[in-house]
Amino acid sequence: MAIQAPEGTRDLLPDEALFWEHFKDTAAEVFRRYGYVLIDTPLIEQTELFVRGIGVATDVVSKEMFAALSGENLKRLLTGEKVKSKSRLSLRPEGTAGVVRAVVEHNLVPQGAAPAKLMYAGPMFRAERPQKGRQRQFSQIGVECLGAEAPSIDAEAIIMLMRFYEEVGIPAASMELLVNSMGCEKCRPAYRDLVRSYLEEHADALCETCMTRAEINPLRAFDCKKEGCAAVMEGAPKITDHLCDDCRQHYADVLTLLDGAGVAYTEDPTLVRGLDYYTRTVFEVQASDGLGSQNAIGGGGRYDKLAEEVGGRPTPGLGFALGYERCMLVLEAAGVELPRAQRCDLFVACVDDSVRAQAFGLVQACRDAGVVCEMDHQGRSLKSQFKLADKLGAARVAVLGPDELAEGACTLRDMGTHEEARVKLEDVPEEMHRVFL
Ligand code: AMP
Description:
By secondary structure, the chain is an alpha+beta fold.
């Protein structure tokens, strides 16, 4: 059998690749208004970055990462030799750790500087079991703001995310924004102990995974989809009842700013998100149509300790990532029409082979003038050239035959109105330019 794309990956064929470009352009346009600029970090990083950055106990580290090995190191591993820790590389499972690493490495937020507002777009890799809306390679667009802890940073990022979804065509009615605060290093440890005790008290009704989590990261039990666990967690202590004064105020300020901007949200005290590094504000956007259980189309939060964890100075941070493929599924379910990849302004058709060289020259002159222009390269009949022009969606067809050529002209046909006109060859690029550019 012919070789196929690996499980959990997808080819973006031309129409969709074009939409991915449009998706990124829209994000860049919206995010730029909020001061975000592009950053591009490597797809591979030292494994240590993610193990540190994400926390050893999380699923991402325990089972969801792809290791990246050079051929040489693969040989070493197979022969039982050690691989130096610097050479232990992983494909990035998420964007935040790499961006924060880059911010620290290049000192992008010197003391007293304005916050660094960075955005990225590209593939992430997770060795998960593929299902609808869950792939092993998927594309995210994300932002990270480093160097400010004001609630206005959280609020503007959330507003910006919701504006992006609307701008790209996701109907507001098919999304729900969930928000919560996860507290800080002052108030969360005590709360975590409370949840741990609660889990231990209800051990009989919980699944094995949740009980393992109880030891290392009890808050993850809120994420368990099993009915029994979900029922137990309904009665668990809620973080919002255990925030310290500073965190309570920060959270209240974020909500006030969202209210002021008219952004609808639901407070969800069970929203904990997968990664350990989050502090204070966390949020997730869920879609109601087009997705099954994988209904989160984006999410993020504050991570005021992460820069220190990767070896930098204390630098507060906040970010989010949104998943392109899941947004596509929602857009499809909403019946949003995607643009066609192929645009063709002009098709130059030859009446016979004697005019091919002139046709080739005309095509070239039009392209040089910025016109999207095509001709036949397979010796098709005139009729079949018109069929091809139709298929390409050509707006005009220039017919070139010995008669036209004798006048140094072509017949220019408007494929919409079927009107025809004789146009001098040297005037065609300008005429096309006038109409289309
Ligand atoms: P996370 O980094 O897990 O918060 O993911 C952010 C967003 O990326 C999610 O809301 C999804 O839209 C998307 N996403 C995460 N994991 C996957 C996956 N395995 N396949 C497709 N999209 C994903």
